[in-house]
Amino acid sequence: MSRYESDYILTTTRSVRLRLDFDRPIDPTVIRECLEIALQAPTASNSQQWQWLVVTDPDKIAGIAKIYRDSFEELTQARADEGPRWPEGDSRSAAEPGVTRSATYLASEMHRCPALVIACITGRVEDAGQMAQAATYGSIIPGAWSFMLAARSRGIGMAWTTLHLRDESLSRDLLGIPADVTQAVLLPMAYFSGDTFRPAPRVPLDEIIHWNHWGQRTPEG
Prior knowledge:
alpha+beta, 42% helix, five-stranded antiparallel β-sheet, 14% strand
């Protein structure tokens, strides 16, 4: 793969919600292929403590979907009470109605997904220091992102979600996840309709890059 082909995958891997084809099944072997690729991602000290929970049972998918939907509704109400999130003119403000619309759709339709994947890692971070926390999440998030990229190249879309963790015990009890395992992300997945995605609007790099010292915007100072 040339650098230009990899750039295309990296810049067009969106959180897909509205364009998911819930009626098309996903062959388990395809999920396994993507996970095999995910296992090439780095982990702290080569610990490889990741665990991948693939959910295809319709009743359990429905259970996770309800947990997610309840959390989404609670968060939506809280944000409505807070008022605008971004200042007027911010690109994120302009995109928010579309994001809200697609997020609402996923919350109402997640139960139709043919598969959910929960990326987990052995260990807990609640009482760990910042270095240990960073190492723990840094040992599962790269693999989860690689999984998303591998799925994207196979025509499968998903959204990076964590709302089901507002009360982690609910999904843990439903799926039998041990108490010493941390859930990092929920990935609802389905083949996506259409074949094109474009790079999304982002905060300008010049506003968020720092060279050598916080606030220094150029290498030369």
